[in-house]
Amino acid sequence: VKKRGGVYQLEFELYTADNKKLIGSFAGLLADFTMDFGVGSGLFNLQETDYPLDHGILVYQRSSTNLPPYQFDLFLFGTGITYTETDGIAGNGNSLNFKIYSSSPNYLTSGTYIYSVNNPIEIFQITAGGYKILHDPLNLQESDWSGTISSGIITITRDRVNYTIEYNLYSGIKNIKCQYTGLLEYHTLIPTK
Fold first, then answer.
1. N or C: which end of the chain has fewer CB within 10 A?
2. 3-state percent breakdown (helix, strand, coil) of the chain, nearest 5
3. What pTM, to 2 d.p., does this model score?
């Protein structure tokens, strides 16, 4: 879903009760329409402390070749954090972020993704990631409350539009475990020439 002025542009992939797939799009005005995507629930555990997560964002980084593997930025946020294509991340709260590669440009494929900085980049690879506790985009200093991922795996199960995401990652010697269930709000960023 994208909104420009009062005009909405919707692209959808839906399933009926008998598992028939419906794909379509719509552009126009919608009376009293509200966007409520990316809603989910979960938490991440860092050093024996749980931090809540309540929504997720999936940003497809479209390349000029548009060939696999397809690069995504995956964000999981707690209350207080928002994301827009124009402003990026805003607000204060807990966050996890990852650069992750899928076999589809439309979603994260179910499977086990492994952290690796090896080239060439492959499907089911994570090349970067990090976490912030009480994320504040105006405070750029790193601390014990933030870090980058150094190893680990992410297991993703996709059921139509819902995801179950489980992490077992490390930031140095700090173990980060996470479980998130719900929708991921989808965005596409097109490279500028």
1. C
2. 0, 60, 40
3. 0.76
